[in-house]
Amino acid sequence: MGIKSFELEPAKENLLETLKNDSIGRNQYIYHFVRFCNALDNKCSIAINAKWGQGKTFFIKQTKMVLDSFNPNIIELTEEEKETVKEIFPNFVDQSSGLSILKPQVCVYYDAWINDNDSDPILSLINAVIRSTASEYSFGENYNLKELLELAAPIVTFFTGFNGESLIKLLESKDPLAEIKRQKEIHNKIAVFFESLLPEKGDRLIVFVDELDRCKPSYAVMLLERIKHYFSNDRITFVFSVNLEELQHTIKKCYGNDFDAIRYLDRFFDFRIELPPADMEKYYKSIGLSENMYYCNLVCQIVTNQYGFGLREIEKFYRIVRVTIGKEFDHDERQAFSGYVLASLFAFKFIIPIILGLRMYDIKLYDDFIHGRDCKPMIDILTSQEIRPVAFSSLLADGETYHQSSKEATVVKLENKLREVYETVFNILDNNLYDEKFIGKVRLFEAVSMLSGIAAFES
Hints:
The protein has helices at about 10-20, 25-40, 55-70, 80-90, 120-135, 145-150, 150-160, 175-200, 215-230, 245-255, 260-265, 280-285, 295-305, 310-325, 340-360, 365-370, 375-380, 415-425, 440-450; strands at about 45-50, 105-110, 205-210, 235-240, 270-275, 400, 410. It is α/β, with parallel strands linked by helices. The chain folds into two domains: about 10-275, no CATH class; about 285-450, no CATH class. A five-stranded parallel β-sheet has the order 2-3-4-1-5, sandwiched between helices. Strands 6-7 form a two-stranded parallel sheet. The chain starts with 11 loop residues before the first helix and ends in an 11-residue tail after the last helix.
């Protein structure tokens, strides 16, 4: 098997697998959010707030998967997949009748970032509704994507009561009467579509809007305004997956730095929900490196915590570390080693994760570190309270100790020993030379390049 992607994509199989394993401990929050959506009985706009890379897309797509599983009219999932989800969330099934206790919801996922080159966001939004909900409905063989977008105006008119004709400029026709007839036919098709959509497929329409904070400022503002003005139906819920801090900056780019972006956003969101943090113990376990590399795993966790990596960054970081030092995992840390092997193990389980973490976090800190100008990152991480000094006993000379144990032993500071390692590795004049305790910089950088003989390209 080759190298997997550095990022776990929210594809259907991954969504289902992480639900089954509850890999980050968020199933309980999905359960309660589904309950929340099920309780709504009028129009509502909800913001799910979390920083970038914290799993917002997974959360809303898994929520959609759960709602789809309990709607018998949705064919996006197989019956086997639906049964799997129902086994994960048995409380949504009436035990006596075996029927769902949830109202059937028609769910649509809309990636705002992908569509932010559109002239008007309402077009791509309506097209997403059509594509997501009309899988069994035919508009006729002669309708292409461009014509489907032209359906947006009649949809808005029919579904919201507002004059949607003003949203787009219809193509000019040499035969006005023929054009009027064509528009009437399209309108009739849309009317039939929406008349059958909710009664047949569900009680409510839930539109999950993702990546709004990554959009161009003008597009993000326009999308919010369009939804506010054109979607007032009591049976529509909008769920926005956003980083509100970044979205505020986006709003200010349109209206100026002194603009009250918080109050502006309050106009659009009826509820703000802070996405609870992932269960990191579960998450680290699900992407664990190796049972043999306890200290490497520990250093990786300290790096991700200290540099504030989100779930997406952690996933990428761990995979890079795994590839970079792959064959070194053949060594069991519980065994005793000495000389060059011990020096190599020290470099690969303690130093390389720091280098790779710095390279992702801050390129200037990384540059200063690898060129021997700043050892602070290494000192800060390896003197963390999570690592006991006994992990660095191999750095001690005869008669030295980190803690006073006898009158004969000389107490030394761990920080000083780590500085000695750093200076030897990164500032030694001849990089091809190293003593018995320290590996040279050349081999270290060769490993970090991911082009060394120990890199694990197959797994």
